Amino acid sequence: MKIRYSFRQGQVTTSLALALALALLLAQASITSAADTATRDKIPDLKQRLADIDFQLNRLANYNPRSGVGVGGFRSTRRPIASHPEWIEIDLGQRNKIDEIIVVPEILRSTDTSLKANGFPLEFRILAGTAEDKQGKVIASYTKGDQILPRIAPLVISCDGIEATWVRLETTELSSRAWDSGHALQLFEILVFSGSRNIALHQPVKVSSQNLIGTDKYNANFLVDGFLPYVMDAAKGERSNAFVAECSPKQPGYISIDLGKAYTLDQVHLHAVDLSDAIPQKRFTNFGMPRHLIIEGANAADFSNAEHLTEFKITSVFEAGPIMMKKIPAFTCRYVRLRVVEPNMDEIVVGHRKTAGNVGFAEVELFSDGMNVAKGKPASGSYGLGSMNRSYTTLTDGRNFYGEILPLREWLGELALRHELELERPQIELRLTDLYDQQKSLLNRLAAVAIILAVGIIVTLLLTRLLRMRQIARIRERLAADLHDELGANLHTIGLLSDLAVDSREDEHEFSEIHRRIRSESDRSSQEVRNSMDLLALEDFCSNLRGDMERAARRIMAKLDHELIIEGETYLKKLKPRIRVDLFLFYKECLVNISRHSGASSFRSHLTASKEGISLIIRDNGVGISRSISNDAQQNSLTPKSLKRRAGLLRAKVRVDHPAEGGTTVKLSIPAKKLGIFKSIYQ
C-alpha cells in the first residue's frame, strides 16, 4: 500500500534543517577560508622571510665592540636643552663624487640595555655641497619618527653619486647623555665613501662647539682618524693568528712585502694584534704596534731607491686602535718596507724569559685606488720566529683572528644591515605569533561550528522523526476518517437501496434498477477505498464540488427533499484538492447522520466561500437535539465524533444547534487565519 500524503510541517522542518545546515556550512567555509587565507597568504611568507633573515644574519659581520683604552670620537659642549643646534662640517679638499656617508655612534655600556649609542642626535639632517654652493643639498633627514635609535650599529646614508667638496651634519634635536642627562652631540666617526675609498680620512673638520674638557679623548679630528669602536668580526672565513715577533730596541728590524709588480699606492691599513678574545683584556690596546714606524716604497728589491711614504708615531694608547689607517701621497712602487724605529716595549714571556721589545700585526693592507694589492703577496723580515712560531704569511693572508678581513665599506654596511634585520626579526616573530593565535582561534571557532552543526543535525533529525511520527498518526487518523466517511455513507446507501429492493420486488424493472445501483455503490466503495489511499494524487478529485455534493445528496438521502445553495464558486475552484476532499467528506458525513438519526423529510445546505474563509450550514427538519442541553460545552459534547474528527482535519470549528423552529443545524466555519500552516488556502 502506497500512502502519498504530504504535510507542510515536514516541508518546513526540512527547510529549517537545510537552512541551518547551509548557514553553518557557510560559516564553516568562511572560517576555513579565513584560516586558509592567513595560512596561504601570510604565514608561509613570514616564515620564509624569517628563514631569509636568519640565513643573512649567519653570514653578516658581527657586532664586536673593541675593549681596552682608546680615543672616543667627538663630543660637543653640554647643552641644557635638546633643541640647541649643533653641526659638524668635513672639508673633502676637492670635488668628489659621493656614494655613501656612514655615521658611527659612540657606544656606551648601559645599566639597562647592555650597549647603546650615547649622544647620537634624535633629529638631524645631512647636507653636501661645493665651494661654490654654500647652502648645499639635503641628502637625508631624520626625525624621531624614523626610529633610528636605539642602535650600536653605524648608520649608512646613500648619496646617489652627488658631487661635493664638503659634507655637514646639522642637528635639530639632541639626545641626553647617559652620564649626566645633559644634551650634547657625540659621534665616534664619520666616513665619506667615493667608491671604496674613505675620502674623509684625516680631512679638516669644523664644529659648532667643542667640549674643552678631555680634548685628548674627544676631539673633532677624531671624527676622521679612521679609528672605529668595533673589532672586525666578519663571521666567515678561517681565522688567522697575528704575526708577533720579539725584537731588541737596538736592532728593531723590519718587514718587507713584494707586491709582484709596481702599483700606485695611496693608503695603508695596519691591523693591530687581536686582543679582544679575552675579558678583561690582558694587553694594552697598542700591543705589538711599534711606537715609531716608517713605511718606505721602492722598486729595487734591496730598497736602494727607497722613498718615504708615511710614518706612525704612537705616544699613548689614545693614538692606537684595531685598525690604523693613513693616506699616503700617490707613489708607484713594487716593494714596501715597514721599518721599525722604536718597537713596542711591553714585556712578553717567551719560554722562560721575558722579551725586551716586540712587534706584531694581524694584517698589513696596501691600497691602490681602493684595492688591497698586498693580499696574498709574499712577506719577509729581519725577525727570527723562534719559539713564537708566527709566520710572515699571516701578514698578507687577508684574515684576522675572527676570519676574513672585509673592505671597510662592506664591513660597516654589513653591520648596518645586521641592525635592520635584528630589528625586523622580532617584529616578524610577533606577527607570526599573532597569526598563529588567530589561526588557533579560527580553528576553535571552526570546531565550535562543527559541534553546533552536528548538534543541529541531530536535533533536526529528532524533530523530523517526531514530526514524521505525528504525520503517521495524522495519516492514520485521516485514513480512518476517510474510510469511515466513505464506506459509512456508501454502506448506508446500500442499506437504503436494499430496503427499497424489498419493497419493489414485485416490480421487476424497478427491482433490477435498484440491484444495478447496489452493484454500482459496491464498486464505488471499492474505488473510494483505493482513492482514500491516494487522495492528494487526484488533482481533479472534487473539482466540481457542486456536482459532487448534489450527487451525494441524491445517493445518500434517497427521496428526501433537499436544497443546495453555493456562493463563491470562483473561490471554491481555487481551493486546494485536500481542502475540497475534506470539505466534501464532511458534507457526506453530515448527510449520513441526517439520514440515519434525524427522521427528517427535508434538509437545506448553504456553502459560502470568500477571502475571509469558508462557511457550511446544513439544516434539517428532524427530531433535533434535546432542549434541556443549553450549555455550549454540553452541546459541543453531542457533536458526533466523526464530525469533530473531520473538522479537526480541516482545522475548522463545528457547532451543532437545535433551533427554536425544530430540527438540527450543523455549522462549519474555516477562517483563513486558522489555515496559517499553508501559505494560502487557495492554489
Please describe what this structure looks like.
Helices cover 34% and strands 29% of the residues. By secondary structure, the chain is α+β, with helices and mostly antiparallel strands. The chain folds into four domains: 101 residues; 151 residues, Galactose-binding domain-like (Jelly Rolls); 163 residues, Galactose-binding domain-like (Jelly Rolls, Sandwich); 203 residues, Histidine kinase-like ATPase, C-terminal domain (Heat Shock Protein 90, 2-Layer Sandwich), CATH 3.30.565. The strands form eight sheets. Strands 1, 2, 5, 6, 7, 10, 11 and 12 form an eight-stranded antiparallel β-sheet that branches. Helix 2 packs antiparallel against helix 3. The longest helix has 96 residues. The radius of gyration is 56 Å and the shape is rod-shaped.
